[in-house]
């Protein structure tokens, strides 16, 4: 019997908790240990909804399907349990946390994730090593989380968290959002540094743009349109999207209308 994938999404349907229309309408995805998968799609396709759902956001409800991590069904697990189990989300818009230094934040997060209670000196030494590898100013360790950080600094801080917390799966939700080319390359090099130490780390990178994937070099690329993965491939698929856009996968109104029951269509 073959070993279960690191992460599986089976027939996932998701709606808002307010009872709105389904946003995800049957997503299937398999991520193996050490694999990098990229998910691309136009605005409104459901990319950020998927990222939020995978971390157990209370804003969304799974109406059908399931999510498995290392063979366990985690569909109903709360966010903190998923994080402790080893799932990490790098946010599209990282929030500032007033009054909490980067050092203190990481100490508390590491204690929750692994039950490790490092001294401030031990943690500082570990952070300093990673800050050097990620090209971060050491003074950031004593600054309040994301307060006054530039877009690139916020994203590098997320990669620092990923390095220290050592997750099994990292979900990067539009990590390239708002970054110039130089900042994007710095962040991508940071992800590579983490993967160099943790070769079994699985990554799902959610993005609009091929430029991030040029740096990350994903093993698999998936196209999400209208709540479904409509095509999968390699980097050639990302390059095609860069040239042609998403027009080839645009929903067909006529085909959708054909699936509406006659009574609902007013016949």
Overview in brief:
This protein has 267 residues and is an alpha/beta fold. It has helices spanning 47-54, 79-85, 102-114, 120-133, 151-165, 181-197, 210-216, 235-244, 253-258, and strands at 7-16, 22-31, 36-40, 60-69, 72-73, 87-90, 169-173, 202-207, 220-225, 228-233.
Describe this structure in words.
This protein is α/β, with parallel strands linked by helices and 267 residues long. The chain has one domain (7-258): Rossmann fold (3-Layer(aba) Sandwich). It is built from 9 helices and 10 strands. It has helices spanning 47-54, 79-85, 102-114, 120-133, 151-165, 181-197, 210-216, 235-244, 253-258; strands spanning 7-16, 22-31, 36-40, 60-69, 72-73, 87-90, 169-173, 202-207, 220-225, 228-233. Strands 6-7-8-3-9-10 form a 6-stranded mixed beta sheet, with helices on both faces. It has a 4-stranded antiparallel beta sheet with strand order 2-1-4-5. Strand 9 (220-225) and strand 10 (228-233) form a beta hairpin. Helix 3 (102-114) packs across helix 4. It is globular, with a radius of gyration of 20 Å. The termini are far apart. The relative contact order is 0.17. The model is unreliable at 255-267 (pLDDT under 50).
């Amino acid at each position: 019997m073959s070993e279960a994938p690191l992460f599986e999404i089976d027939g996932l349907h998701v709606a808002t908790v307010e009872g709105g229309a389904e946003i995800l309408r049957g997503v299937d995805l398999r991520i193996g240990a050490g694999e990098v998968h990229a998910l691309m799609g136009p605005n409104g396709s459901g990319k950020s909804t998927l990222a939020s759902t995978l971390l157990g956001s209370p804003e969304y409800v799974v109406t059908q399907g399931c999510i498995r991590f290392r063979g366990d069904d985690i569909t109903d697990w709360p966010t903190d349990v998923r994080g402790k189990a080893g799932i990490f989300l790098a946010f599209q818009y990282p929030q500032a946390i007033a009054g909490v230094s980067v050092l203190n934040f990481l100490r508390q997060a590491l204690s929750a994730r692994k039950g490790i209670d490092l001294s401030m000196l031990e943690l500082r030494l570990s952070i300093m090593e990673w800050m050097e590898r990620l090209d971060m100013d050491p003074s950031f360790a004593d600054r309040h989380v994301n307060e006054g950080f530039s877009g690139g600094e916020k994203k590098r801080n997320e990669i620092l968290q990923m390095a220290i917390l050592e997750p099994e799966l990292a979900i990067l939700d539009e990590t390239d959002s708002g970054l110039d080319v130089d900042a994007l390359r710095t962040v991508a090099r940071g992800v590579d540094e983490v993967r160099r130490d943790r070769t079994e780390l699985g990554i799902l990178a959610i993005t609009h743009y091929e430029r991030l994937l040029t740096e990350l070099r994903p093993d698999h690329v998936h196209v999400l349109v209208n709540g479904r993965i409509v095509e999968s491939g390699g980097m050639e698929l990302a390059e095609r999207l860069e040239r042609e856009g998403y027009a080839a996968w645009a929903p067909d109104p006529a085909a959708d209308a054909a699936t509406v029951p006659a009574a609902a269509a007013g016949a």
